[in-house]
Amino acid sequence: MAKSVGLSAPTVTNLTGELIDHGFLRGLVSKSGSMGRPRVPLAVDPDRRAVLGIHLGPQVTGLTIMGLDGTEKVSELVPHGDLPGPEAIAKVVTAAERLTADREPGELLGTGIATGGQVDVGEGVVLDHPSAGWRDLDAISPFRAALSGPIVFDHNVRAAAQWELLYGVGRVTDDFLLLVVASDVGCISVRQGAIRHGASRRAGIISHLTVPGSTVVCECGRTGCFAAAASDDALVRQAHTAGLTDISYLDLLVRLADTGDATASALLSERNRAISCTAAALFDLDDPGRLVIAGSPAEVADHFEEIRTGVGRESVLGEAASERVVVSNGHLMSLTHYAASSMVAKVLEDPLAHVSGDARLGA
User: Fold this and answer.
1) Does residue 339 sit in the same domain as residue 319?
2) How many other C-beta atoms can be found within 10 angstroms of the C-beta atom of residue 35?
3) What does the pLDDT look like over 25-57, one tens digit per residue?
4) CA atoms within 13 Å, Cβ hemisphere of 125
5) Which one, out of 83, 104, 329, 351, has a CA that is 20 to 30 A from the CA of 131?
6) Is residue 19 part of a domain?
7) 249 domain residue, yes or no
8) Residue 192 in domain
9) Are 316 and 178 found together in one domain?
10) pTM
């Protein structure tokens, strides 16, 4: 470690000792058989420090307390249905207070909050979230009033990219493209370990990219927009138009297709084609080391494989492109973990500042 960071061994020992004392690292059993003072392996301490992650969803919000190593300690889902934005936020704040009430003093270092739509990161405002019906919603002030510690606010997709950097594909490459398809859609480029935010911090908006051959009419009035063709909510609307009026969320459509229903299968197959076409175009533009697929298409192995194969078919690189398409390690609470990882990244910038009282509040 001393060699890799360019510091002397005593300096590294002192620094890591302080991080161990403050609960960020822990020493492991040394396996060294060499003479002299043994080298002690280190790992992130999974127990003594944690962050709160909140994913503000259009119908359901997820909360989790996550260790700095990415492991979940406890989680909760908070349905808020069609409540107006401020009332939905108030309900989530109450749940967050309840979830954090019995944590050890000093354990929680802050909160990461993420959501979809268009967000103003600096002001902590959801500018427009069509799936939730939120416009100009103050998403941060109620949490600042109720929770202690700093708060980081960002878009789902950038938070997902941060999670991948810390705990996912970032462990094998620092050059990747992340495509998220859920109730919202987005794409983020990561180069040399840096997330591309864009000049206005709104990079990743791909909702209105045109899908070749798609006939779905978007709410913007155009035909073939990616979000209208591929997002989870769009698929539910398409199912209703096709006569499957009992479908209230995407999993029901997937289950119906598994029974052999031709209409459900056709809708999902067309969605996978739309994702493949868009993913291939983004891949050809960026030429990443990996293309990571996250969200609902990554949760069904057959769907992911159909998309991966489709990228190879549509990309100018052919099969070589499909070999670089990988699935995110996400799961049911993945969006909440993504939100939490944004706060972990803030902690890692200066860990000791978050225990000495000089951590700066704000995004």
Assistant:
1) no
2) 6
3) 888 876 655 555 667 788 888 888 999 999 999
4) 8
5) 329
6) no
7) yes
8) yes
9) yes
10) 0.84
Strand, helix or coil for residue 326: strand
Q: In which element (H, E) is residue 25 found?
A: strand 25-27
Counting Cα atoms < 13 Å in the Cβ hemisphere of 263 gives 13
Q: At 255, which CATH number?
A: 3.30.420.40
Is 26 within 8 Å of 359 (Cβ atoms)? no
Longest dimension (CA), the chain: 75
Is the separation of the CB atoms in 223 and 175 below 8 Å? no
Query: Hey, which residues does 76 pair with through a beta bridge?
Result: 63
Please provide the DSSP assignment of 48-82 as one string.
Answer: S-EEEEEEE-SSEEEEEEEETTS-EEEEEEEE-TT
Chain centre to alpha carbon of residue 72:
14
Using CA atoms, how far apart are residues 333 and 336, in angstroms rounded to an integer?
5
Compute CA 299 distance to the chain's CA centroid, rounded to the nearest angstrom. 14
Total count of domains within the chain? 2
What is the signed CA dihedral for 159, 108, 59, 293, rounded to 10 degrees?
30
**Residue 193 and residue 177 in contact, taking contact as beta carbons nearer than 8 Å:** no
The sign of the dihedral angle between the CA atoms of 105, 110, 111, 112 is: negative
* Cα–Cα nearest to 52, from 90, 86, 99: 99
Amino acid at 116: G
Q: Are residues 140 and 280 in the same domain?
A: no
Whether 35 is covered by a domain: the verdict is no
Pick from 151, 153, 150: nearest CA to 357: 150
Same domain as 318, residue 223 = yes
Residues 146 and 253 in one domain: no
Claim to verify: residue 99 and residue 243 sit in the same structural domain: no
Examine the domain organization and report whether 71 and 113 are in the same domain. yes
Pair (313, 342) in one structural domain? no
Print the domain residue range for 191.
173-327
Residue with structure tokens 């960071």?
5
Q: Which two tokens mark 17?
A: 């000792």
Give me the pLDDT at residue 21, please: 84
Q: Residue 47 carries which side chain, given as an amino acid letter?
A: D
